[in-house]
Amino acid sequence: MASGSLLAAILVLAVVIFVHELGHFLVGKWCDVEVRVFSMGFGPTVFARQFGETVYRVALVPLGGYVRMAGYEEEGGDAADAPADPKRGFTVKPLWQRAAIVVAGPVINLLFAVVVLTGCALAYGVAVPSNKATVDDVATGKPAAAAGLRHGDTIAAVDGKTISTWDDLVAAILASGGKTLHLDVTDETGSSRRVEITPTLAEQHDAFGEVIPSVWQVGISRGIDLTPIGFGGAFLSAVERTWYDSTMILKTIGRLIQGRISATDLGGPILVVAEASKHAQSGLQPLLLFMALISINLGVVNLLPIPVLDGGHLAFMGIEAVRGRPLSLRVREYALGFGMMLIGALMLFVIFHDIVRIATG
What we know:
Layout: H1 3-30, E1 35-51, E2 54-69, H2 95-124, E3 126-129, E4 135-138, H3 143-147, E5 154-158, E6 161-162, H4 166-174, E7 181-186, E8 192-197, E9 200-205, E10 211-217, E11 220-222, E12 224-227, H5 231-258, H6 269-282, H7 284-302, H8 310-323, H9 329-359
Antiparallel strand pairs: 1-2, 3-12, 4-11, 5-6, 5-7, 7-8, 9-10
Helix pairs in contact: 1-2, 1-6, 1-7, 2-5, 2-7, 2-8, 5-7, 6-7
């Protein structure tokens, strides 16, 4: 992994986390809560400077961050956490203000994704599947890679039969029955060549990772065309993409709970850094699109009703709204302890599988 790509990967995570914490910070300030610390990262302090009542801090481990607000019981509950002005403590604020502060982090992540996706659409155009039989990506270890197919190759004929569209190519591969095919290929420079390729019967997965019936395939993905678009169309496309990715994340979590897909398919911070580095090597647009996806993931996952996550705090507030009073501090502490154990165990699990996945290629 090149140092420049690794730096870009860390920057992606830092930006997405900063945006999340900025949401809590800005709404907290708007609600006149005393904000003690705005921290990027965990662990030993690399840099810290106080402006007004807030200490702005950069820590050594860039895989997280937090905003510490005075009077936030779960962050200590001792006298040192009491606000200078009792009216500016987090817990004394009206329920709707506390909920707004908590939900602001995930919401701004989703809005940030819309902004990034809109900018990408304006700058590069909207990606639509190409109707031509043009190869976008070639999977390592698959028949297409062994045959020498490359990104940008266009298939002109299969066994002498003209191929006009991507659907024509797919139909020819599916109908092959595993016999060797002879492809007439034109590369991006216009040079032509003939290659032999033998499709293999491979297990298929749907968008959620569930196994579907096997088909004959060669290991290529469809090319894309970038279509210029105006601001209105770019914004609408960004909103639709953010909504689609958000619902896909929730549906995937549902299938995990049902046991329909394996938890080993989950990716942790190591895989995120590796993927961000790979996208950085491909150019600015892929990196920005990946940043938007990570921001959507962070926003949606943080809204899950798990103690420690923003969604868990919102669940506490929902119970408070129904009961007319909050749950006892002890109950919340037990719930938060359980949530920390759950998230900690999940992080260890995904990090272990990240290492195994990378080690085994």
